[in-house]
Amino acid sequence: MQFKLLSVAALAATASAQTMNLTATLMNNSMLSNLTSYVSLFPSVLSSLESASNITILAPSNAAFSMLLNSTAGMALANNSAAIQAILTYHVLNGTYYASNITSNATFIPTMLSNPAYANVTGGQRVEAITEGMNVTFFSGLLQNASVMQANINFTGGVIHVIDSVLTIPQTIAATAEAAGLSAAAGALTDTKLVAAVDDLMDVTVFVPNNAAFQAIGSALGNLTMAQLASILEYHVVNGTVAYSTDLMSGMMIPTLNGNNVTITIMNGSVFVDSAMVVIPDVLVANGVVHVIDAVLNPNATTLTANPTTTMVAFAGATSVSTVPFTSGIPTPTSMLGGGAAAGASSASAAMMASSSSAGAWAPMRTGAVGAAALFAAGGAFMNV
Known about the structure:
About 25% of the residues lie in helices and about 20% in strands. By secondary structure, it is α+β, with helices and mostly antiparallel strands. Strands 2-1-7-6-5-4-3 form a 7-stranded mixed beta sheet. A 7-stranded mixed beta sheet has the order 9-8-14-13-12-11-10. Strand 10 (about 255) and strand 11 form a beta hairpin. Helix 8 (about 175-180) crosses helix 9. Residues about 1-15, about 345-360 and about 365-385 have low confidence and may be disordered.
């Protein structure tokens, strides 16, 4: 939805008026009665917000809450107070951001969601903020988007923006891959028993090949041992660094769990990881960020150069197969990135479409004890491919 930025005169009038506390401000806005009710259910959250300063609250409208509560995901929330509390804290940004502070350059803003059951990112889980035309939009898990309906409502602790949908808490890497139709990657993680290890890492960047990428080298994948496949998958994982698209610079060499470096190249406006092109950037996950790429990376073919006109196959002699590898037993996706096409498809043209709710969007992370050691060990026996 479009809205007009406040004029200088309106800002001056707002500044001169007496600023109310959070509760009074919410109660004074007829579009936020549902949010007021939910926040009141959690006195500790309300008290924390009332005493906070320099924060921005993304406040879902009554219509946004109604849309959520009528969905499968909303029904699942009815008896899950921990999930509701996590959702509320995910809508609180650290820092005061007026509409004019959000530009056409994406910004990844930390939120108050730091509960390790739902987020494993240093400084709190992020939302992506960007201006598209006259719209201020916030992207959350699975690239679901929420647009600002009413901007710049001041209160004593900061500013409130009314948004048209409830944000989606980013899911684990494996859950995101399944939900987004990246079924080959999800299946490969399952087959190599790396799901728990990858999901338990903190602060990660993962370059996830789409289904077409796995299908293109299907003949080579059938000859791999699980140890070889695990090491290839590790070459797609950067541990200890959350590198959003705004952090990726041409010429960067980033160490992976495999031990080798991937090389970032920016050419004609496209971002490449080795020779694979990023086709869907900045999919927020519970422990970092995923960038979907159009080719499977090969730790033994790191010298391949980026080509903006041709998808480069990093496995010499590999040919495509008729079916997508590793997808047996992987559920059909119930939601899509941004409410559009599945990321596993060869085209990413619909990846940023209108939002929809995901049934598993607010499930807590697993809290198993499997950690980074298992991930390193799983690929330790890598052989040349």
